[in-house]
Amino acid sequence: MEEPMYIKIHNQIKRDIENHVYHVGSRIPAERQLAMKFGVSRMTLRQAIKTLEDEGILERRVGSGTYVANQKVQEKMSGIMSFTEITHANGQTPSSKLISFNIGKPSLSEKERLKLVDQEQVLRMERIRYADEVPICYEVVTIPYKLIKKMSKADISAHLYQTLEKNGYQIGRVTEHISAAVANENAARLLDAKKGEALITRLQVTELSTGDPFEYTRANYVADRFEFTFSK
């Protein structure tokens, strides 16, 4: 079955954006011009544009026109990559701000997720992750203290996975749970977002190659700045 014409137009405009015919933040040609270019009615053209808007690729600005939306950070859900690697892969500069870095007793959920025994301590750190200085994510990361007690604070907070590998550990499987949420007052303040703005919530448990869990992460991403792409 042949694809509908609006889907063909959608795919072509998307390719043009990927090939930098239309750059991020730039205005695309008016509907009338695009309809003439593709030889279709404006109604068909509008279907294609609306689909691209729904996908977050284009954004309509009242009284101004339609623009290529700001690029989101994409995490491809195949293999395990750190936020730093993901951001570099998207051509952006990563950075982070450490809010807290404390050693103490685990909560019940931390104890369960990390399969800890009685009396074990954990390192719990909170941080904001940035791409090109734009806040993307607020996360709380919990790690068994025994695993990282000889490693430096700077290495753990900035390059956890690389630091573990340098110390002879191999990263294994990751399990993630993705859900939707809205920003409360605290999340909005930390992420420079609006209260009630859409968030993506991610719970992640990462294991070593031995099968032992070493990282439990709870993260909130601003939905219009980040997206997950699943691939097999």
Describe this structure in words.
- The structure is a single chain.
- By secondary structure, this protein is of the alpha+beta class.
- A six-stranded antiparallel β-sheet has the order 4-5-6-9-8-7. Strands 1-2 form a two-stranded antiparallel ribbon.
- Strand 1 (58-61) and strand 2 (65-68) form a beta hairpin.
- Helix 1 packs across helix 3 (42-54) and helix 2 packs across helix 3.
- The longest helix has 14 residues, at 5-18.
- It is built from nine helices and ten strands.
- It is elongated, with a radius of gyration of 22 Å.
- The two termini are 25 Å apart.
- The chain folds into two domains: 5-68, Winged helix-like DNA-binding domain superfamily/Winged helix DNA-binding domain (Arc Repressor Mutant, subunit A, Orthogonal Bundle), CATH 1.10.10; 73-230, Chorismate lyase-like (Chorismate lyase, 3-Layer(aba) Sandwich).
- The mean pLDDT is 87.
- N- to C-terminal separation? 25 Å
| Percentage of residues in strands | 35-45%
Overall shape: elongated
Structural class: alpha+beta
Q: Low-confidence spans: pLDDT under 50, at least 5 residues? A: none
- Just name the CATH architecture of the largest domain: 3-Layer(aba) Sandwich
The helix content is: 25-40%
CATH fold title of the largest domain: Chorismate lyase
CATH class of the largest domain equals Alpha Beta
> CATH superfamily name of the largest domain?
Chorismate lyase-like
> What is the average per-residue confidence, as pLDDT, rounded to a whole number?
87
Oligomer: single chain
**Counting H and I runs of at least 4 residues, what is the number of helices?**
9
Radius of gyration: 22 Å
Number of strands: 10
Main sheet overview? 6 strands, antiparallel
Order of helices and strands: HHHEEEHEHEEHHHEHEEE
Order of strands side by side in the largest beta sheet? Answer: 4-5-6-9-8-7
